[in-house]
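A student in our group prepared the protein record below, which I am reviewing. Thanks in advance; the entry in question is below.
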Amino acid sequence: MTVIRRLNATNPQFDTQLRALLAYEDEQDASIEAVCRDIIHDIRQNGDAALLRYTQRFDALEVEDIAALEITAETLQAAQNNLPAAQRIALETAAARIRAYHEHQLQEDWSYTEANGTRLGQRITPLDRVGLYVPGGKAAYPSSVLMNALPAKVAGVRELIMVTPTPGGERNDLVLAAAALGGVDRVFAIGGAQAIAALAYGTETIPAVDKIVGPGNAYVAEAKRRVFGTVGIDMIAGPSEILIISDGSVSAHWIAMDLFSQAEHDELAQAILISPDADFLDAVEAEIHRLLPTMPRQDIIRTSLSDRGALIHVPDLDTACDIANIIAAEHLELATADPDYCLERIRHAGAIFLGPYSSESLGDYCAGPNHVLPTAQTARFSSPLGVYDFQKRSSIIHVSYTGAQTLGPVAATLAEGEGLYAHAQSAKLRLSTTE
């Protein structure tokens, strides 16, 4: 039984087949939209009282006020201290690497002065307050906490507020420990669309933030979509993706497992391998069939590979790179003998992994670069989450007397051409005056 489809780039129908393979419609569920609309409206109108009702209803937490849902700094630190040694060391190692990488993204103010004394430049300032959503309960995504929190703190964000649901009071120590390591300032045990609304508009207890980041379920994603504009958001992420280009120089066993590493996320995840070596594609397909029964999440992997996966044969690596630029994948592995050859030809990808030892899984957890990446071909125009997402740029314009004499007539002429005469007069008033 075939688990994954085979395509050939020389087939006249290939372009049509590729478009069909990449097609992903993020259809909005009308019931989810309606629920989120009502929850957001309720939170805006009734603040803590509404937030408490939803927390009691969805998370079965019986508390008297929202303040009781704040998780103290002492609790976060205790969670870190009480982790098994191996987990604590792994988390601390990942945090150090993520912080070090993002420190390289810091930008400084800059300016230049023209000959007439006019100074122009740019000032870079951090956001004041950011909200971080983290899935809770049995789900444990400490790596996501680090990937979102550390760039914000490196950027200089003054206050980072994390929300995470704790259904039935179930807390995840790894997530809380990551919050301590990431420098999170306040943590509230709330979740869902109601937590997003609280962060966006503020309540008596939850302060309003300037931007909301972090993954969540369909209700969280829809709530983020609805509050965008009132606050900034990171992105509305689609299913996870991996694209591998290989010339057959890397173990077929390794490549099959790398495909599995994304396919196991969920049934909509996408895993694609491109190679000019047909025998290698055969070998990888054989490994897929051999290894799949050993995977704990084999049913999810099978559905993902069957519905959205592909093994693509190409005449050469240049063609592989051309196809990669169309796919614009979230994760791109260049598993070739000379990965730099392909790297020079890649224009669109979220994260690029070079060589046989750069497995995508290392990027997910501890390599250092951010694992919050553009999906669904949005790498054509967007970038991984980074320090720059938590900073703003302001233009600096300091026009000298001489500069005003030069620029004034230019501005006035253009303003009059647009019919904006107050603009023109504003510029003209500064002409022929004594410095």
Remarks:
- The mean pLDDT is 96.
- The chain has three domains: 5-23+240-367, 30-233, 399-428.
